[in-house]
Amino acid sequence: MKIFTLLATLAFTAFSLTPEVATVNTAESTITWTAKKVTGQHHGKVPITSATLDYQNSRILGGTFEMDMTGLTVEDITDPDMNKKLSDHLKSDDFFSVEKHNKSTFKITDAKTSNGKDYDITGDLTIKGITKPVTFPATVEVNSGKITATGKLTFDRTHYDIKFRSGSYFENLADKMIYDDVELDVKLVASE
Question: What is the model's pTM?
Answer without folding.
Answer: 0.85
